[in-house]
Amino acid sequence: MTVHVPVRPATPEPHERSAGNHRPGPRRPGPVRGASPQAGERLRPLTRRQIEDRFAELGDLYAQTSGGGPRAWNMARGAFLRHLGADVRRPGFCLLIAETTVLTGCAYGYPVPGGDPRGVRGLAPYLPRTVLPVAASGGLFLVSGIVVPARVRRQHQDRAWNLARRLQTRLLAEHDAALGITLVDRTDGATVQALRSWGWRYAEGDTLQSSVLGRYGVLVLGR
């Protein structure tokens, strides 16, 4: 269960200055402009059939945002599609895409079963007791992945119209979930930092605790 937030340099848009009859000065990097909610990507869920039809395209999106050479590209794409193929069969699975004229991002996950929340494969060793009441009521949603361009991690992270924030908020709303949860490798500082900048918080205490059975920790997100 991973949140993919590749790190790449963001290029700010140039800003041209002029005053009165003076000749325009040299172009200088200006403030980075963020897309408004109206101009941003459209979000919509895909049905399972649509996911199957766009499987290759989703794999390409992941690989293109992961960086690296051709070998790393193919390995990342293959691993992503294997995990996605397993997740899509889970009850209540939901995948949202973001698109303009092309696919620009996606987020996906599934509800944690209320009757036996520890029965979700891979989650049992890490699920903190503090979220068990939410899980028992059926209000816990596991966010398996968020795939977005580097600019989303670097720019306007605290804005409601940040693409990652829009995706994760809509994902929880689609299932009327009270709380989102995700597992993250606590040694992956870039991913932890990105999630925290999008409003995720530690499930217990002020630090990201790991289970005695592994190095992963839990972050949660309220609606």
Present the secondary structure layout:
Layout: E1 14-15, E2 28-29, E3 42-46, H1 48-53, H2 55-66, H3 70-87, E4 94-99, E5 103-111, H4 132-136, E6 140-147, H5 150-154, H6 163-174, E7 179-185, H7 189-197, E8 201-202, E9 216-222
Parallel strand pairs: 6-7
Antiparallel strand pairs: 1-2, 3-4, 4-5, 5-6, 7-9, 8-9
Describe, in plain words, how this protein is organized in 3D.
The chain is globular, with a radius of gyration of 19 Å. It has seven helices and nine strands, in the order βββαααββαβααβαββ. The protein is α+β, with helices and mostly antiparallel strands and 223 residues long. The model is unreliable at 5-35 (pLDDT under 50). The longest helix is centred in the middle third of the chain and has 18 residues, at 70-87.
Give a nutshell description of this structure.
This protein has 223 residues and is of the alpha+beta class.
Strand order of the largest sheet: 3-4-5-6-7-9-8
Helical residue percent? 25-40%
Alpha carbon gyration radius: 19 Å
Number of strands: 9
| Spatial gap, N to C terminus | 20 Å
Shape: globular
- Name the average pLDDT: 78
In terms of structural class, how would the helical and strand content be classed? Answer: alpha+beta
- The string of secondary-structure elements, in order, is EEEHHHEEHEHHEHEE
